[in-house]
# Entry
Amino acid sequence: MRVTRRYRFAASHRLHSAAFGEDENRELYGKCSNPYGHGHDYVLDVTAAGPVNAASGQAVHIPTLDRLVFEQVLKDFDHRYFNADVGEFKALVPTSENIIRVIEDRLNARWAEAFPGEWPRLEGIRLRETKRNVFELKS
Amino acid sequence: MLITRRAEFSASHVCAQPALSQEQNTYLYGPAANLSGHGHNYVLEVTLEGEPDPVTGMVFDLKKLKELIQQTVIDPMDHRFLNYEVPPFDKIVPTTENVAAEIWKRLEPHFRAQRARLNNVRLYETDDLYVDYAGAAEGGR
# Structure
């Protein structure tokens, strides 16, 4: 059984790499490289999978998942500027590809503590930057 | 090829185990443990897998799929209190997981002798929570 829970956070970012000059950044990232940054209403889907407990009827204890995602992701990401406020992005361009990897790392870092048994496991993460741009990872 | 048919039903339920205290049930199920019950607009997506028939061009007749979903799921569950009116939820907790597994159980036998096989049942309880079930074969997943 796979259980998917949807979360939302609003954050800003600027796509700009120190590896390139201003013109190259502008060429590569276009208006996403605007010096003051810009923001999105991100939609984050977290999928966890495991067998259904016969007594509870649950494969995933949702309050535990909610707490984990809040503590590891939402608390630090919501209403923040990735480039300035989130440590990982001091040295990493906050593209959605990089953001989704950071989310996976952050969830994995505390997953076993939140869910000490064999199940549920993190199955996948989907990050919607806008309605037209969606990124997905299978764990 | 995968084909998916969507259907909706509205139903109420309560998530609580009779053997547990109200406090334990609230820990497990949150506000869903309120014994008076509450409801959802469930959205069901039934996905079939198969190759199109070379003559009809169809994997499965979607009209038939619509009727099958109507008869096995919508008619018995729509505008019902699952715990009181829809077995087996008089005996097991009607969590999203259990409702999805029950829908799979009701649909799957109808596809054993068809070109199309039941591939997946996705059940949205709300916009922010859904489960996918592909039968016991998926094991722990």
Summary: Chain A touches chain B through 23 residues (CB under 8 Å). The radius of gyration of chain A is 17 Å. The longest helix of chain A spans residues 96-114.
